[in-house]
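User: If only I could read backbone structure tokens as easily as an amino acid sequence. Underneath my words sits a plain record pairing an amino acid chain with its backbone structure tokens. This is the protein in question:
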Amino acid sequence: MSAGIALLAGCNDGSAASPSIAPAGAAAPAASVSPPAASAPSAASPGSTAAATSPPAAAAPSGTPAADKRQLLHELLELAKQGKAPGVEFAAHTGLIEDVEKAWGEPDKKESAGAGIYSTYSKKNAVFGFNKGSLIFDVRSSAPNLQELRLSDIEAALGKSQDIRKNGDDIIYVYPAGKDFELKFIIPASTGKVSHISVFSPQDSKNNMAG
């Protein structure tokens, strides 16, 4: 099955030692008193300022793969609140398919699916769903960096989804993005990784008037 069809089918993360104790006063003659043995470092008492404490477990530092994925996911959610997907300048709810075609040319494929018509731009890793009034209600992206995400990455950054759907082999994890949009992660059970994301405007998917 082609990448475009797959997109259409899918929708709907060294202790510091205590200082040694020095002998008090001047050194006595060796024949009379032996100098006291140096104290071995011992475990510091709870009140000691030299006590070594284990640092609390910290979040993954910036620059690590886990931190990068967490940042990416937060950016996805913020973009989705604007109806947008990363790398795509056309937004759901405000964009028109004619504007996409003027900027990107004719799509590789155009077909009816679900609530509207979908145009696939394979080289852009993007698919647009639009209604009969030409208003875009669904912006999908299958960018390579998104396809590296797993459910564990998503839940570590955004929490567990309260809206999980299924479509064939695909499991769809839906997150609200503001009051107007949904951010969907489509994960085939066979791979365990994101196939694509969808930024969806439910209200516009129901607006099928011809204008």
The beta strands are 109-113, 116-121, 126-130, 136-141, 163-167, 170-177, 181-188, 196-200.
